[in-house]
Design goal:
- The structure is a single chain.
- The chain is of the alpha+beta class.
- It folds into two domains: 223 residues, no CATH class; 74 residues, Alpha-Beta Plaits (2-Layer Sandwich).
- 58% of the residues lie in helices and 10% in strands.
- The chain has twelve helices and four strands.
- The protein has a four-stranded antiparallel sheet with strand order 2-3-1-4, covered by helices on one side.
- A hairpin with a 4-residue loop joins strand 2 and strand 3.
- It is elongated and about 85 Å long.
């Protein structure tokens, strides 16, 4: 009996599924926290306008500053981001539920509730924690992207243009990425027509130049968070392909099945030098699981020949869902 077997109960798959679901909801709820932190501590104090619904709600916050002093005194009379985020997402979720289906909306509802809550409880700083605007755009965008990536990895969403993309994609054969990119371009470009914040006016110079500079801050932030999302998703979704050559193929295949809980395919082959039939084990696993596979093989047959290759993506049972865009 392998020492790894005591950690695995092959009959507890439903329990593991429930635990994973709870874990994913916790990741959605708390993974959004850094995102809200960057918005209230970097984006809003610098008066940046990024992409997505956050950019729209930020623009409304800047434009309405001082208009509603009695309603929103703690926000300087501006309509708070948490309120516009909740209202816009509620409308979009209603439309999505009636068109795409309510099943899609469940986790998005949790994400929307979480981001609304964090926007509400995290105070907006009068001065950004990162004073330099370029550094603020890059670092703030990167942390924002890592937070968003964690939520997406948990099959969640923070709402906004994600919902718009799903609705449009439901009726038109347009990729989700192109829809979201188009939305981001329009939202970031709108910053050119917004009133300049006092911090930028204090710099002096040509107002047109300052407006262009403000748009570029939003572009830098969007590029930064896009890179962060792609980097994190690539790290989390890395998989490897094993080819294992061993006379004890049946023991190794069974051990991988029961211990790593991965499907195994045994292929027929012929050793050309020996002209003898051989069995080859083919198995796909997540990158973090590869060390366990190596340990199992070494435990059963230290003389086994093992080949391993990085795989760009694996879709299907036990891995990522197949998505048609």
């Amino acid at each position: 009996m392998l020492r790894f077997h005591r950690f695995v109960n092959p009959h507890n798959a439903p329990s593991q599924s429930r635990v994973r679901t709870v874990f994913e909801y916790l990741v959605i709820i708390f993974g959004i926290f850094p995102m809200a932190l960057m918005v209230n501590w970097v984006l809003l104090p610098h008066a940046f306008v990024g992409g997505g619904l956050t950019g729209i709600c930020s623009a409304i916050y800047y434009v309405t500053g001082g208009l509603f002093p009695s309603l929103f005194p703690e926000y300087g009379g501006a309509v708070p981001v948490w309120l516009t985020t909740f209202v816009f997402n509620a409308i979009l979720l209603l439309i999505a539920g009636l068109t795409v289906g309510w099943r899609f909306c469940i986790r998005t509802m949790v994400g929307v509730a979480a981001i609304t809550f964090w926007y509400r409880v995290i105070p907006i700083l009068p001065e950004p924690i990162i004073e330099d605007p370029w550094l603020g755009a890059i670092i703030g965008g990167f942390v924002f992207g890592l937070s968003l990536g964690a939520v997406l990895a948990a099959n969640g969403s923070s709402g906004g243009t994600d919902i718009v993309a799903m609705i449009v994609n439901h009726y038109r054969n347009i990729s989700l990425g192109n829809i979201m990119l188009a939305c981001d371009i329009v939202i970031i470009a709108s910053a050119f027509f917004l009133p300049l914040p006092e911090s930028m006016l204090a710099e002096g110079g040509n107002p047109v130049y300052l407006q262009i500079k403000r748009v570029l801050y939003g572009v830098a932030m969007t590029i930064s968070y896009t890179v962060a999302v792609d980097w994190l998703m690539a790290r989390l979704h890395r998989s490897v392909h094993f080819l294992i050559y061993s006379s004890k193929y049946d023991e190794i295949a069974t051990a991988i099945n029961t211990t790593v809980n991965r499907g195994v395919t045994v292929l027929d082959g012929t050793g050309w030098y020996s002209q003898k039939p051989v069995k080859v084990i083919s198995v796909l696993v997540r990158k973090p699981e590869s060390s366990l596979v190596f340990s199992l093989v070494h435990e059963i047959d230290p003389n086994a020949l093992v080949s391993i290759a990085d795989v760009g993506g694996v879709f299907g049972s036990g891995f990522d869902k197949i998505k048609v865009k």
